[in-house]
Amino acid sequence: MNTNGVGRVHGNGLNGAAEFYYEAVEGSQNPGGVLLSPAAFINPAQYASVLEGRFKQLQDEREAVQKKTFTKWVNSHLARVTCRVGDLYSDLRDGRNLLRLLEVLSGETLPKPTKGRMRIHCLENVDKALQFLKEQKVHLENMGSHDIVDGNHRLTLGLVWTIILRFQIQDISVETEDNKEKKSAKDALLLWCQMKTAGYPNVNVHNFTTSWRDGLAFNAIVHKH
């Protein structure tokens, strides 16, 4: 707030948040003139940079947890055909392990992988896997074979999560204690996520796709536990 008692107009995003916080700190002086927060010694731009760095750190930590969890899940199934992945992002790029995984999970025989290690061969193999998923009525939003071949972190994790939902969760039925109503495990898991994230600001879990893109729901569940 300026000397006339009128609040400053803040910008948007991190800079706007930093300006607001900086102004609040400026107004937190006690009668002796001692600032009550060390954040007062940095300007809004510096504080915005600190916030941005912290957000990036949280995103990286969340991705690392997802990668580790999904890698263990993939290997638990590939072990049945004496295969394993070391790095989820690189070891799914040629499509071979992806096809093996889908065969194990579905119990069906998929098209044989195309021989060769060139990019075009990798694209063909991943495309076979994605085509099989589409035949299983799996919705692959904004995802192409090139995304997996290029090792796109976000979309590779998204693909594995989609496979988990289809083959590990969707076909299981559970019985709720309240009304003995049969629910799919997918619905039960969604309800569990909604219960665990209730009360967290800006966290609204409606599905397993768009509701998780900003990372808030995942962080809320991690914080809850």
UniProtKB/TrEMBL annotation:
Domain Calponin-homology (CH): 64-168, 183-225
Keywords associated with the record: Actin-binding, Repeat
Gene3D superfamilies assigned: Calponin-like domain (1.10.418.10)
SUPFAM superfamilies found in the cross-reference section: Calponin-homology domain, CH-domain (SSF47576)
GO molecular function (one): actin binding
InterPro entries referenced in this protein's UniProt entry, alphabetically: Actinin_actin-bd_CS, CH_dom, CH_dom_sf
Xref: Pfam families: CH
SMART domains: CH (SM00033)
Name the UniProt record assigns to this protein: Spectrin beta, non-erythrocytic 2
